[in-house]
Every structure is written in structure tokens, then in C-alpha cells.
Amino acid sequence: METGAAIACAAIAAGLLLAWGLPRWRLGRALARPLDAAQLGFIERNVVQYRGMPAPLREQLQVLVKRFLHEKTFVGCAGLEITEEMRVTIAAQACLLLLNRTTEVYPGLHAVLVYPGAFLVPRKEVDAGGVVTETRQDLLGESWGDGRVILSWDHVQRAGHQPEGAQNVVLHEFAHQLDSESGSTNGAPILGSTESYQRWSAILSRDFELLRRDTYWGYRDVLDPYGASSPAEFFAVATESFFEQPHALAARHPDLYAEFRRYFRVDPRDWFPQPLWQEAEPQGMVYGQWR
Predict the structure, then answer these.
(1) pLDDT tens digits, one per residue of 218-269
(2) pLDDT tens digits for range 48-57
């Protein structure tokens, strides 16, 4: 009996060790294999920020991409067949948000659902009288709290081919993923200290209110008006601008840009040439409107 019990305990211990060690071994193997020429070509072609990065950041992004590809499942929707270009492009754009940061690669995310273009999502709207109306909303992307992100491939690819100034659905939806890691999607990701949260709240609340006011009066800002809908959407929209329009965001929202530099630990202005418009920017332009 004692011998049988010892064998059973040894088998359980071996099983636990295997269950713990096998995933780490598989991840190690995946990270040890370099991206091939085709995969690197997809990043070069479809991630505009990559082209201006120094070599150390490029190498760091490649490691993050390999881990993303190893850990996440891609699912084609509406008849779309997932290709390696789609997987690598989405992974690389998403991992821009993780450079120079000590973090897991979106630990709450399990699957990326990809549609060929914009997709319809059912919605229920309740009016003041309590009447429920079912509608269908046309979307480019969506981040869900159950470990899924949904994207339109057409818009993913389009953002990667445009120069500074493009909207980027991957950056937007994965900003929501970072936001949700704090336990609540409210525009405040994990920041690490009370002082950081206080500074973040003061700066983002102020610029959020400025965007709401400018949107109400029809003034155009570097930030998409959609960011005025909620603090969570403001963070996602501002993240897009930080990585896609860094010179414009720094010029019009300097405190916000500085706060994002502290959080993301990169300065995307270094990846883009200085835009010609900035030299002639009128001094009266503050926070997206004329004074």
C-alpha cells in the first residue's frame, strides 16, 4: 500500500511539473525561433512606426510579436481566411503599446476575431420611457471583457499603410485591453502609485472636458471626437493619437503627451519625421481651437 501511494504521489507530482513546465518550454522554443523574412516584411510594410524605430526597439517588438502569436488564437469571421500577414500585422500593431514596459502580453486576451471589413453588432437602446429598441451598429472594432478583441482587417491594413495621422483600430481596441487590466474599463490603466493616479486623473480629466467642449462647439482637435463619449474612449482615442500623430498631440496637448510618455515609456515622435505644418503652427492654437 505504501509503495502504491508513493507511486501515485510521484505520478501526481510529475504531472504537476509537466503541466507547469511544458507551456514554459513551448514558449521558450517559440521565442528562440527568429521571425522569418516574410514575417519581418509584413511588419515593415504594415506598421508605419516600425520603419523609424532604432534597432533595439525593433528587436524588442519582434520578441513581443512572437509571444503574441504563440499565446493568442486568431479566428476569421464572415468567411475570412486568416493569413500569416493578418496575424503578424495585428500582433505587431498591438505590441507597440507594450514596448519598454515590464508586463505580460495582454494576459486577459485569448482570441482575436477578424472580419474582412466593418461588421454589424446588435444593440439594445432604452429610451426615457423604458421602451427597448433593438438596433444594429456598424463597427470597425470592439474589445470584450471575456478575452476577445474583434477587428476589421480592411481598417487594420489601411492604418499600417498611411503616414502619420491615420486612425488605428488595433491601437484603439488594445488600449481598452490595457484599461481593463485594472479591473474596470474607466480610462485609468494600472499605473502603480497613488501619485501616478492623481496626476493621470488631473491631466486626462481636464483634456477630456476640453475635448467634450470642443466637440460640442464643432471645433476640430487632433483627438477624434469619439473620445468625448466617455473617459474609457478618451484614453483609447488619445492612445491612437499618441502613436499615430505624436507631433500634433505633443503640440496641442503637451501635458497629455508627457503623461503618455511616462506610461508607455516611448516617444513616437522619434519614429516620424518632423511635420512641415508644425513650423508654421499659429501660436493661438491651443487644445484644438482658436483663442
Answers:
(1) 998 899 999 999 999 999 999 999 999 999 999 999 999 999 999 999 999 9
(2) 999 999 999 9
Residue type, position 185, single letter:
T
- Cβ-based burial of 102 (10 A; exposed 0-12, middle 13-18, buried ≥19): exposed
The answer to whether 149 and 142 are in contact (CB under 8 A) is: yes
In this structure, the dihedral spanned by the alpha carbons of residues 226, 232, 237 and 238, taken in order and rounded to 10 degrees, is: 130
Among 29, 58, 60, 27, smallest CA distance to 43 is for: 58
Asked if 202 and 218 touch (Cβ cutoff 8 Å), the reply is no
Q: Return the C-alpha cell found at 291.
A: 483663442
Ordered by where they begin, the domains of the chain are: 36-181 (1.10.472.150), 184-291 (3.40.390.10)
% residues pLDDT > 70 (the chain): 75
Which has the higher per-residue pLDDT, 126 or 289? 126
The grid coordinates listed for 74 are 486568431
Least confident of 160-164, 187-191, 195-199, 247-251: 160-164
What does the H/E/C string look like for 171-190?
HHHHHHHHHHCCCCCCCCCC
Nearest-angstrom CA–CA distance, 76 and 113: 6
Q: How far apart are CA 257 and CA 248, in angstroms?
A: 10
Nearest-10 crossing angle of helices 231-244, 194-217: 90
Among residues 263, 274, 257, 272, the alpha carbon closest in space to that of 50 is found at 272
Burial annotation 149-168 (CB, 10 A radius, 16+ → b, else e): bbbbbebbebbbeeebebbb
Q: What number of residues does the chain have?
A: 291
Residue 251, all three cell numbers: 503640440
